[in-house]
Amino acid sequence: MLTKRVAMAIVLLALPATAVPGAGAAQAQTPPTPPTPASRGGAAGDVPLSAAPGDVFRTIQLPDLTRRENFSSALQIIILLTVLSLAPAILIMMTSFTRIVIVLSLLRQALGTSTLPPNQVIIGLSLFMTFLIMAPTWQRVNSEAVSPYMEGRISQGDALQRAQYPLREFMIRQIERAGNTDDILVFTDFAGQAEPRTFGEVGTMALIPAFMLSELKTAFLLGFKIYLPFLVIDLVISSILISMGMMMLPPSLISLPFKLLLFVLVDGWRLITSGLMGSFM
């Protein structure tokens, strides 16, 4: 009996008000109540059911996203995922990763081992070297921009502006050290800007590609210097094979053990990595 009563109660609650006997009379006797502020969408942001489609869009108000307290957790997750998806591009464009990975790739080609070390090893070594080189710059970005913004002491615009200063100083220092200041003029002239007299007049959008050009030039110059001793070994081995009449024997097959032996004896990996990291200091 108790189960039947519970089932009947659920059915009665599920039925509309007009289906219940006496509901029409009760509704006719009770006067209509004025709409409350909550039904107008004032408190909870709900839109009345009788509102027109145009009224729905007029009642929606976008929050001020420049203020940190207006960011919901969903928006923060979306922004975080966006930043993480752009992190590889930022890492390549504005850090020392470009120079390191190019030099290590040229070293692998100079040794004659096209697949050794594998790409994962070269990229992993380049990433850890980049983290060590860029650690002071990231610490400045964290202390001057990220931490004050998370604590609510500065706005989002101020945080982005402050985060640019350490990265700009790093890129400007590397361009000056490599002597590639003319690369900046290529992009400022193309943008129709006047010739900058100081680096402060150079915009970030022109400084980043100029820094990448400078890094490419420096990386290929270092790769050429690394290539020379291995090229000498290849020439010596080729001359010996030709003088012996062994023209059908590939010179790379004979020169590879000698190049590996020379590279190991001089402790080549330590020299290359220390030279690369020292070029940024």
C-alpha end-to-end distance:
86 Å
User: What is the share of helical residues?
Assistant: 55-70%
Rg calc: 34 Å
Number of strands: 0
Strand fraction equals under 5%
Give the overall shape: elongated
Helix-strand makeup class = mainly alpha
Written overview of the protein:
By secondary structure, the chain is an all-alpha fold. The chain has a domain at 96-106 and 113-278. It is built from eleven helices and no strands.
How is the secondary structure organized here?
Blueprint: H1 2-14, H2 23-29, H3 53-59, H4 73-94, H5 97-111, H6 119-150, H7 156-178, H8 182-190, H9 204-243, H10 251-265, H11 268-278
What are the key terms here?
single chain; 281 residues; mainly alpha; 11 helices
Structure at a glance:
This protein has 281 residues and is an all-alpha fold.
